[in-house]
Design goal:
- By secondary structure, the chain is an alpha+beta fold.
- It has one domain: 2-Layer Sandwich (GMP Synthetase, Chain A, domain 3), CATH 3.30.300.20.
- About 45% of the residues lie in helices and about 25% in strands.
- The chain is built from 3 helices and 3 strands, in the order H-E-E-H-H-E.
- It has a 3-stranded mixed beta sheet, covered by helices on one side.
- The protein is globular, with a radius of gyration of 12 Å.
Length: about 80
């Protein structure tokens, strides 16, 4: 899941070198934190959070296949 979020984020931003994705596991729940440059924050969130919702939807679909609960946090 971490790699999936990283690939999506790097495709969206102007500074792909500053994309950092961390993953914390808590039982069957996984929290993925996405860190991007301040100038790229708007591109990752999108208007009214549409891009962020789309990223979360893709990750949720992929995690359902593996019976995991994954939360994506944009920091």
């Amino acid at each position: 899941m971490k790699e999936l979020v990283e690939v999506i984020a790097k495709a969206l931003v102007d500074n792909p070198d500053e994309v950092v994705v961390t993953q914390k596991e808590e039982g069957k729940s996984i929290v993925i934190e996405l860190h991007v440059a301040a100038s790229d924050m708007g591109k990752v969130i999108g208007k009214q959070g549409r891009v962020a919702k789309a990223i979360r939807a893709v990750v949720k679909a992929a995690s359902t296949k593996e019976n995991l609960k994954v939360d994506v946090e944009i920091v």
